[in-house]
Write a sequence for this structure.
């Protein structure tokens, strides 16, 4: 991973009103205040709830952007979303995106994130729809998810105090990369906070403690993600090294095959010109009776 790449967090669900914007704005604030991180917030939703909240509340240095996605076609939607993500996340350490998921968006966009947070109430219908949303995504992207170890985190949202996560979202239990975050409780006088204040620093200790427990959990997941990224072979310069290694083995194989007279691939023409360029003298003298090159690994059997 390139060291200046931000950790990208998508807050999404195809369900409306589950708390995506509330969580996006307040998580951005938590990470900026408590963890002293440079945070950018991209609001992909027309209502602009999370960006408005972050702009109206006291300025704590969060970079806020409202971005439009062009849904004219699937290709344009992906392209415009990716362009905004690149543009507005650059220079920050954490980028949080607030987006209502629609089938018009390619799952490839979801794959661009280090973690996907999925707020959901604990009502049975909503829990089931959240489980289906996650399972469909995992089914489509299984191979790549296994490779990039993206975290999927369900957030029980607007739940009654005393709610226990245990025994909920059980259809996701088998997914190694899927977690249930500490719940965010229903706030009775919610509208006195909207646009005014951030939960983690508000004067109501119960609300501040509840949100901070969630924030701390995500903060820990960010630390773990940074560690994981160091070991992933599919990102940054390491993938280039891996590919380079494979390509050079392939070139070597093609050279040998071509010299044995059984390689007819497209690269044949270029290989013809410099096939002997990197052979040792020993290799070059090892010709068969027909004048063909016999590579070292076959020579033993021919002697
Ligand atoms: N923890 C909470 N306690 C009480 N009310 C909440 C809580 N979280 C969100 N709300 C309220 O629920 C409504 C929906 O929340 P929010 O706008 O954050 O959800 P959303 O998923 O972004 O919705 P949309 O799909 O419309 O973008 C809002 O009126 C918000 O004030
Ligand atoms: Mg919203």
């Amino acid at each position: 991973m390139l060291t200046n790449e931000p950790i990208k967090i998508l807050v999404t669900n195809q369900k409306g009103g589950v708390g995506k914007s509330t969580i996006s704005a307040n998580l951005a604030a938590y990470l900026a205040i408590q963890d002293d991180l440079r945070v950018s917030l991209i609001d992909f939703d027309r209502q602009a709830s999370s960006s408005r909240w972050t702009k109206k509340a006291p300025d704590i240095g969060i970079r806020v952007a409202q971005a439009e996605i062009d849904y004219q076609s699937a290709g344009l939607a992906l392209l415009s979303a990716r362009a905004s993500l690149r543009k507005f996340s650059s220079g920050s350490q954490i980028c949080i995106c607030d987006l209502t998921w629609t089938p018009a968006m390619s799952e490839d966009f979801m794959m661009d994130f280090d973690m996907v947070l999925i707020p959901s109430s604990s009502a049975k219908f909503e829990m089931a729809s959240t489980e289906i949303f996650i399972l469909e995504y995992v089914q489509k992207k299984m191979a790549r998810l296994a490779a990039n170890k993206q975290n999927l985190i369900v957030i029980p949202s607007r739940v009654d105090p005393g709610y226990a996560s245990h025994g909920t979202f059980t259809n996701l239990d088998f997914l190694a990369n899927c977690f249930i975050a500490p719940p965010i409780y229903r706030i009775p006088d919610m509208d006195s906070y909207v646009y005014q204040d951030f939960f983690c620093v508000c004067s109501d200790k119960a609300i501040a403690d509840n949100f901070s427990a969630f924030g701390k959990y995500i903060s820990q997941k960010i630390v773990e993600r940074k560690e994981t990224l160091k070991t992933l072979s599919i990102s940054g310069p390491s993938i280039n090294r891996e590919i380079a290694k494979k390509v050079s083995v392939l070139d070597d194989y093609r050279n040998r095959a071509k010299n044995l007279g059984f390689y007819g691939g497209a690269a044949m023409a270029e290989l013809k010109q410099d096939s002997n360029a990197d052979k040792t003298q020993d290799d070059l003298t090892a010709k068969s009776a027909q004048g063909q090159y016999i590579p070292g690994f076959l020579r033993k059997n021919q002697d």
Q: What stands out?
A: The domain at 7-232 is CATH 3.40.50.300 (Rossmann fold). The longest helix spans residues 205-231. The two ends are 49 Å apart (CA to CA). Residues 16-22, 45, 47, 49, 100, 157-158, 184, 186-187, 190, 194 surround adenosine-5'-triphosphate (ligand 1) (CB under 6 Å).
